[in-house]
């Protein structure tokens, strides 16, 4: 976690040495902007593989729960299976519509 924070330009030393006026004025805002830019670039880089991996995970979950559903009728397992069933189609369609 510390490596991630130092990568985006935020360190514990800079935060502790700032006064309240500096925090409101600019330095923390620029650190937040740097963090937002970092996560945006991370999302754009890993969006397609992440969504495909999520779709695969949901499909594996449905395969496993399909056999267990016959023998267990718990409310929680039924709820999670139904949510996975409903979201599997939406995630697959979103993954197909992503560019490149």
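^ structure tokens above, recovered residues below v
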């Amino acid at each position: 976690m510390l490596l991630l924070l130092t990568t985006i330009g935020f360190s514990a030393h800079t935060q502790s040495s700032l006064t309240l006026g500096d925090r409101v004025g600019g330095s923390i805002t620029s650190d937040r902007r740097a963090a937002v830019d970092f996560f945006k670039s991370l999302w754009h880089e890993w969006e397609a593989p992440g969504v495909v991996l999520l779709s695969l995970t949901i499909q594996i979950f449905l395969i496993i729960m399909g056999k267990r559903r016959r023998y267990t009728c718990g409310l929680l397992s039924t709820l999670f299976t139904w949510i996975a069933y409903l979201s599997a189609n939406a995630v697959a369609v979103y993954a197909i519509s992503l560019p490149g």
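The radius of gyration is 21 Å.
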